[in-house]
Amino acid sequence: MVVSDDPDGGDGMGLDVDGVEQEVATGSLPGWDRVEEHVRAAHERYRGNDDGAVADYIPVLAEADRSLFGVCVAESGGAVHAVGDADVEFSVQSISKAFVYALVCEAYGHEGVLERVGVDSTGLPFNSVMAVELHDGHPRNPMVNAGALATTALVPGASFAEQWENVRTGLSRFAGRPLELDGEVYRSESATNMRNKAIARLLESYGRIELDPLEVVDVYTKQCALRVGARDLAVMGATLADGGVNPVTGERVVSAQVCRDTLAVLASTGMYERSGEWLFEIGLPAKSGVAGGIVAVAPGKGAIGTYSPPLDPAGNSVRGQRATAYLSRTLGLNLFASSAQVPVTPTRPTERRDPAS
């Protein structure tokens, strides 16, 4: 069933979904053939788009092939639909924040993490120092750099090497395969991450990071340099969609409560300054990274993973946003897309009678 066929929907973000009808969000995805058809259609529709600019503030990212474009949908039942460059690897970047946050919540619980890192949008760029100063050093959001650094500092481990290994193996469990460090990206980011080092030192001065801030930045830089593909992102997202159970391996990675908390944060803050527009237009919790990846999660159904290096001014993949918007509409994933299935006649509640009367 279609909620609306408004031909202008989505134009505020330049999503290019004119004429794509919004299907009602039901309790399940359509059949395998229809999902496959729509994933292929999304890739075909946007693969020729050349809008956006490749990130260049990390030198090695500026060398990315802007023509690469992969789309993947992983269903909660384990089916995977991959098209285009879905297996080309790239650095996960800020998408790692969502999954490290989930691992830390699993280790310390809802309240334990909330005491150290808030869940409110800052309304400022992801690498803002001002966001720390405005709130007396309290990180407001785990999906921007200040909150992400404070979150990484909470990863269990007796040493920084052990913390890093716990991050790598934890994200590998989400992906269902071993993820490896991209050494070139790590070295390139390490040479240019002065702002993150400044943020970490500022957090230390407020007592929000109790470890060596430069070592925390190093672990964080490594987590951002893990290599993934669009297929990996879809499976990782589907693990959150399936209450913490990886739909491909069957392994429980985190609890259902942790998934709920993580998806709530992604819904409000996962797409940088455009998170509100994203939720309004696409209606899914999501996270992006400046290498060109996006993961979007449909709770109980599965997830979309995309990869395309050219970004919009907010740092989100242009093709990735458009493909996700298309699939949100055609697969009925938008959490807010509903429609009455049958006419309902209001009735008055039956009056209670006094047994003594």
Automatic annotation (TrEMBL):
Annotated residues for binding of substrate: S94, N145, E189, N196, Y220, Y272, V290
Q: Report the InterPro entries cross-referenced here.
A: Beta-lactam/transpept-like, Glutaminase
- This protein's record includes keyword Calcium: no
Which keywords describe this protein according to UniProt? Acetylation, Hydrolase
Under SUPFAM superfamilies, the record lists:
beta-lactamase/transpeptidase-like
Q: Does the keyword Repressor apply?
A: no
One of the record's GO molecular function terms: glutaminase activity
* Catalytic activity reported: L-glutamine + H2O = L-glutamate + NH4(+)
Q: Which GO terms describe its biological process?
A: glutamate biosynthetic process; L-glutamine catabolic process
EC nos: 3.5.1.2
The record, for Pfam families, names: Glutaminase (PF04960)
Family of this protein: Belongs to the glutaminase family.
Q: Could you describe the subunit structure of this protein?
A: Homotetramer.
Q: What is the recorded name of this protein? A: Glutaminase
Q: What is the lineage of its organism?
A: Bacteria, Bacillati, Actinomycetota, Actinomycetes, Micrococcales
Q: Corresponding gene?
A: glsA
